[in-house]
Task: inverse folding
C-alpha cells in the first residue's frame, strides 16, 4: 500500500513537470530553430492533441452546486417543422462563451482582454493543441507560418490533462509544485494563488534556460476540470514582450466574476421570468414554466430551437430559489437528458434545468399544444410537461443534406 502511494506521487510529479516542459517548449518556438522541435515534439506531444471538448464529454460535466441551483443532469432534445406557431429562439453568447466555444465547462467571468481578441483553433484538426486567443489576423498569420511567427501577443488555452482541481479548491500536486520545478531546473519561481469568485487560479512565473515564462491553471468547479493558459509575446526580437505580459496580468487580475443572471448563463442557462433558454454546444432549448393562479396547477413546455437537439424529462420538482439572485422566489427544476447532433458535436448530456416560475391567469398556447401531433404530455408530482422534442428524431447535419438532395 505504501509503495502504491509512493508510485502515485511520483507519477503526479512527473505529469506536472511534463506539462511545464511542454509549455516551455512551445515558448521556445519563437526564439530557436523549429525543425528539430517539430520533428521530435510532433511525436512526443500527441497526448495533448485530444480536443478539450472530447475530454470533457468523456468525463462528463456538471454545474456548480455551491452557488447555483443548477445540478448536472441535462438531456438532448430536437424538433423540426412544428405546425404550432413558434417564435424564433435566439441565444446570444457571453464574451467568455465566444472565447471558449464547445467547452462544456467554462469559468463564469467577464474576461478583461482587448476587444479584438477572438478564439481560433488550428484549421487542421490533427494539429490542434487547444485554442489561441488574439486578433484574428494575427492568429491566421501564426497558423500559416507553422506557429513560428507572431506579430503581436496571443494567449494559448487548453484543457489541463495532468493538473486537476480537488474538492477543497486546491490543485493536485500544489503542495510540492515549487520543489518539482526546482528539480526540473527552473529558477526565480513566483507562484500566486488568485481567485475569480469561486474559481481558484494558480499563476506561475519562472525562468528556464535564461527565458522567462508564465502559465496559469484555472479551476472550473466541475468534476475536477482545469483550464491551462499561457501568454506568448511577439516573435520579433526587436519587439518588447512587455505588452503581452501586461495583457496577461490584466486578464488574471481584472477579469470580473459573473453574478446573478450572467452567472447562470455562463453555465448554459439563460434564465428569464417564466422560461429558460438552454444552450448545449450551440443547440438551444426553450423551457417554459407557468403556474395557474386559480388552481395552483403548473405547466411546463419544452421546445427545441431546431432539429439538432432533443430532450427527455426524467423528473421535476417545485421549490424556492436558494441562491442570492431571486432568493426564495418559486422555481421549477427539471432533471433532463438531452441529445445534441450538430455541426460541432454529437453527444448525450444530462443536467438539471432551472426555471423561474411565472404566475398566470391561464396557461399560454394550451389549445395549440393539445392539438399538435406527436407532443408528449407527462405528469410528474402534479406538474404537466408538454415536450415538443418528441415530435421528431434528432437529425445530423449530414443526414439533413442527404434528405434535401433526395427531395
Result:
Amino acid at each position: 500500500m505504501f509503495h502504491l502511494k509512493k508510485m502515485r506521487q511520483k507519477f503526479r510529479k512527473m505529469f506536472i513537470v511534463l506539462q511545464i516542459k511542454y509549455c516551455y517548449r512551445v515558448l521556445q518556438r519563437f526564439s530557436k530553430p523549429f525543425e528539430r522541435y517539430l520533428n521530435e515534439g510532433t511525436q512526443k506531444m500527441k497526448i495533448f492533441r485530444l480536443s478539450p471538448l472530447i475530454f470533457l464529454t468523456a468525463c462528463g460535466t456538471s454545474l456548480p452546486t455551491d452557488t447555483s441551483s443548477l445540478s448536472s443532469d441535462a438531456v438532448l432534445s430536437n424538433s423540426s417543422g412544428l405546425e404550432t406557431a413558434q417564435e424564433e429562439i435566439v441565444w446570444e453568447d457571453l464574451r467568455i462563451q465566444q472565447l471558449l466555444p464547445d467547452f462544456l465547462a467554462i469559468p463564469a467571468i467577464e474576461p478583461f482582454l482587448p476587444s479584438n481578441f477572438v478564439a481560433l483553433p488550428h484549421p487542421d484538426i490533427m494539429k490542434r493543441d487547444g485554442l489561441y486567443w488574439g486578433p484574428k489576423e494575427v492568429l491566421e498569420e501564426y497558423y500559416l507560418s507553422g506557429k513560428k511567427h507572431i506579430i503581436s501577443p496571443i494567449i494559448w488555452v487548453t484543457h489541463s490533462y495532468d493538473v486537476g482541481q480537488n474538492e477543497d479548491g486546491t490543485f493536485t500536486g500544489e503542495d510540492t509544485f515549487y520543489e518539482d520545478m526546482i528539480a526540473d531546473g527552473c529558477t526565480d519561481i513566483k507562484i500566486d494563488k488568485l481567485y475569480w469568485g469561486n474559481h481558484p487560479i494558480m499563476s506561475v512565473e519562472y525562468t528556464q534556460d535564461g527565458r522567462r515564462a508564465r502559465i496559469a491553471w484555472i479551476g472550473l468547479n466541475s468534476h475536477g476540470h482545469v483550464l491551462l493558459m499561457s501568454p506568448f509575446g511577439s516573435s520579433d526580437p526587436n519587439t518588447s514582450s512587455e505588452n503581452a505580459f501586461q495583457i496577461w496580468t490584466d486578464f488574471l487580475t481584472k477579469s470580473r466574476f459573473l453574478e446573478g443572471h450572467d452567472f447562470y448563463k455562463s453555465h448554459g442557462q439563460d434564465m428569464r421570468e417564466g422560461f429558460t433558454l438552454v444552450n448545449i454546444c450551440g443547440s438551444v432549448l426553450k423551457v417554459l414554466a407557468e403556474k395557474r393562479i386559480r388552481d395552483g396547477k403548473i405547466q411546463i413546455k419544452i421546445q427545441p430551437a431546431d432539429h439538432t437537439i432533443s430532450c427527455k424529462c426524467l423528473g421535476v420538482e417545485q421549490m424556492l430559489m436558494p441562491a442570492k439572485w431571486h432568493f426564495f422566489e418559486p422555481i421549477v427544476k427539471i432533471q433532463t437528458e438531452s441529445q445534441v447532433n450538430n455541426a460541432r458535436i454529437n453527444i448525450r448530456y444530462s443536467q438539471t434545468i432551472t426555471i423561474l416560475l411565472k404566475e398566470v391567469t391561464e396557461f399560454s398556447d394550451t389549445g395549440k399544444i393539445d392539438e399538435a401531433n406527436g407532443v408528449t404530455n407527462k405528469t410528474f408530482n402534479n406538474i404537466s410537461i408538454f415536450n415538443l422534442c418528441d415530435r421528431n428524431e434528432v437529425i445530423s447535419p449530414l443526414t439533413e443534406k442527404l434528405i434535401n438532395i433526395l427531395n
Observations:
- The longest strand covers residues 309-320.
- Residues 264-400 form one domain.
- The longest helix spans residues 2-28.
- The CA atoms of residues 112 and 249 lie 10 Å apart.
